[in-house]
Design brief:
Largest sheet of chain A: 2 strands, antiparallel
CATH superfamily of one domain in chain A: Glu-tRNAGln amidotransferase C subunit, N-terminal domain
Order of helices and strands of chain A: HHEE
Order of helices and strands of chain B: EHEEEEEEEHEEHEEEHHHHHHHHHHHH
Distance between the termini of chain A: 39 Å
Helix content of chain B: 25-40%
Largest interface: A-B, 40 and 63 residues
CATH topology of one domain in chain A: Histone, subunit A
Strand content of chain B: 15-25%
Strand order of the largest sheet of chain A: 1-2
Low-confidence stretches of chain A: none
Structural class of chain B: alpha+beta
Distance between the termini of chain B: 53 Å
Low-confidence stretches of chain B: 381-387
CATH architecture of one domain in chain A: Orthogonal Bundle
Number of strands of chain B: 13
CATH class of one domain in chain A: Mainly Alpha
Largest sheet of chain B: 8 strands, mixed
Strand order of the largest sheet of chain B: 4-5-8-1-9-10-11-12
Radius of gyration of chain B: 29 Å
Number of helices of chain A: 2
Helix content of chain A: 25-40%
Structural class of chain A: mainly alpha
Oligomer: heterodimer
Shape of chain B: elongated
């Protein structure tokens, strides 16, 4: 399946990625290749097979409502910058 | 200029209700973020770290179904979670786990009563759906800084999202709907539903059309109406704006707007429009759900009497006025308190036989003295808003002594206050502190004295100043410590002076 330029630009915009013209061209090529590869699945006859997103056959896998995680002193992630426990990010302003 | 007559407003609401579970929606982090340090209540699941496995909270799922049942929603045989993708710093995974095409609650109806033009009107508002999802984190923007701060304590808090049909017709009706919905959530015990704390957040869709027109006009979406007042004012401002546009022959753009409180107007948030492509797909990490296997019968049985029904019952069974019933049914605790008080008032040696009379007296005490003392106590100790177990019997006994005529509200007030504050036996204390029954001759004497003490008001009254008698009535009430009937005293004073 061929991915056009607009599709790449749209996905980049949704993912908040700034792509150069070269990046767009490269991604267009690569994404098309990936989708072509996935297209192989279309060769399988799926007549009569209901669509599913699940393979385990499990239903209602729920956990009881109890607090089991302790309060943590430090974030378990490498945030580039923090301030008083909060993660610092580039300014975003709600309209 | 009001547009109300030229156009009909068509309003639908989307409400997020924060559920008060102990732990979060998909992990077992503490869900009570009040007072916690930033990011203290986080784990690999709610931080969206690779390889973490979200497991839905059983209580949150049960509560969502409970809420759906209370809203008259059909419960589907199958349900599932989906991923809703968007990128924002408060959403660490890059997607929110939500529900797309198989919500927990299908179409339903929410019914409530409101007073319009002095008449009680029943409203039936269609519920499109109810689904469960997780909240995002909290962003703060320090003043003057070029950065924002992310706190993910709230990320993963369970939210029930309720979407209504465009069945609301005015800002007042929308506000009322929200108030009634809040009451329902509290009755169900699934949310504190405090709007100021963001437990209840509303967005509104609104369009105008000519009366009688079936087709809907172009709508705008009004975001973040975070108090009852904002809901009413924001919608009113938007109706005004759309009315002006339509009057000028212009069209309304479909867009997201926010309410600017200071300017009392709505403002376009066009910048937020572009990313409405959420690319939902089924959440592969969470197996599907079969709500009916979760004990629906038990959930149905566990449903409380709904607020609208309780209120109607209070009006028809107890003869209360709508506004009294409204106050007395504010929470399930209040309902229990009232009914236990009523029982206490209608038993015992000086029991009240007339239920309406008993109900009226309890209403007076509960929302006169009772509330006042409760407020004082709460301020002192920050205790929870529960009526202590002894309160209903105290109120009931008070109602009995009020009904027997041995006390008036003003003589009862200080004694009740002492009973509550010092935890005294209500029956013994009220018996002992009974005010002297005023004989007619005693009252005559007191009135004569009051007239003698206030020669000027007495002369003024004789000269035709009606209001001047109030000074004398006040003096009599003071002298009798409230034991006299003010209206009766006023009549006697008038008689003596004319």
């Amino acid at each position: 399946m061929e991915i056009d330029r607009q599709a790449v630009e749209k996905v980049a915009r949704l993912a908040r990625l700034a792509l150069s013209d070269d990046d767009v061209a490269a991604n267009q090529r690569q994404l098309s290749k990936i989708l072509e590869y996935i297209d192989q699945l279309n060769e399988v006859d799926t007549k009569g097979v209901p669509p599913t997103a699940q393979v385990t056959g499990t239903v209602n896998a729920l956990a009881d409502d109890e607090v089991r995680n302790e309060r943590r002193d430090e974030l378990p992630i490498d945030a580039p910058a923090t301030d008083g426990g909060s993660i610092k990010v580039k300014g975003v302003f709600d309209g | 200029m009001s547009g109300a007559s030229r156009y009909e407003a068509v309003i639908g609401l989307e409400i997020h209700v924060q559920l008060r579970t102990k732990s979060k929606m998909f992990c077992r982090c503490d869900n009570q973020a009040d007072g916690a340090k930033p990011n203290e209540l986080t784990c690999p699941v709610c931080l969206g770290l690779p390889g973490a496995l979200p497991v839905p909270n059983r209580t949150a799922v049960e509560w969502a179904i409970k809420a759906a049942l209370a809203l008259g929603c059909a419960i589907p045989d199958e349900s599932k979670f989906d991923r809703k993708q968007y990128f924002y710093p408060d959403l660490p995974k890059g997607y929110q786990i939500s529900q797309y095409d198989q919500p927990f609650g299908g179409p339903g109806t929410f019914e409530f009563d409101m007073v319009e033009d002095g008449k009680t009107v029943t409203k039936q508002i269609g519920i499109t759906r109810l689904h469960l999802e997780e909240d995002a984190g909290k962003l703060t923007h320090p003043k003057g800084a070029d950065y924002s701060l992310v706190d993910l304590n709230r990320a993963g808090t369970p939210l029930a999202e309720i979407v209504t049909e465009p069945d609301l017709r005015s800002p007042a009706e929308a506000k009322r709907f929200l108030q009634e919905l809040r009451r329902l959530m509290r009755y169900l015990g699934i949310s504190d539903a405090d709007m100021e704390k963001g437990h209840l957040r509303a967005d509104a869709n609104i369009s105008l059309r000519k009366p009688g027109e079936k087709k809907l006009g172009t709508k705008t979406e009004l975001k973040n109406l975070n108090s009852f007042r904002f809901v009413e004012r924001g919608l009113a401002a938007e109706i005004e704006r759309q009315t002006e546009l339509l009057d000028a022959g212009k069209s309304v753009d479909q867009e997201t707007r926010g309410f600017d409180e200071d300017g009392n107007r709505t403002v376009s948030q066009r910048g937020k429009e572009e990313a409405h492509d959420y690319r939902y797909f089924p959440e592969p990490d969470i197996p599907p759900l079969e709500p009916k296997a979760l004990g629906i019968k038990k959930l149905v049985k566990g449903l409380p009497e709904l607020p609208v029904e309780v209120k109607r019952r209070f009006i028809t069974e107890y003869g209360l006025q709508p506004d009294q019933a409204e106050l007395l049914t504010d929470s399930l605790d209040d309902v229990e308190y009232f009914e236990a008080s009523l029982k206490a008032a209608m038993s015992g040696k000086n029991k009240i036989n007339d239920r309406t009379k008993a109900a009226q007296n309890i209403s007076k005490i509960a929302y006169g003295i009772g509330r006042q003392i409760m407020t004082k106590k709460m301020l002192n100790s920050f205790m929870e808003l529960d009526w202590p177990g002894s309160y209903p019997s105290v109120t009931g006994v008070g109602a009995r002594y009020l009904a027997s005529g041995e006390y008036t509200m003003s003589t009862l007030n200080p004694v009740m206050e002492r009973i509550w504050e010092e935890d005294l036996d209500p029956e013994k204390t009220l018996e002992k502190e009974k005010p002297q029954k005023l004989g007619q001759s005693d009252l005559d004497k007191i009135i004569d004295q009051a007239i003698a003490d206030n020669p000027k008001p007495a002369a003024d009254f004789k000269a035709g100043n009606e209001n001047a008698k109030q000074v004398i009535v006040g003096a009599v009430m003071k002298a009798t410590k409230g034991a006299a009937n003010a209206r009766e005293v006023a009549q006697l004073v008038e008689k003596k002076l004319s």
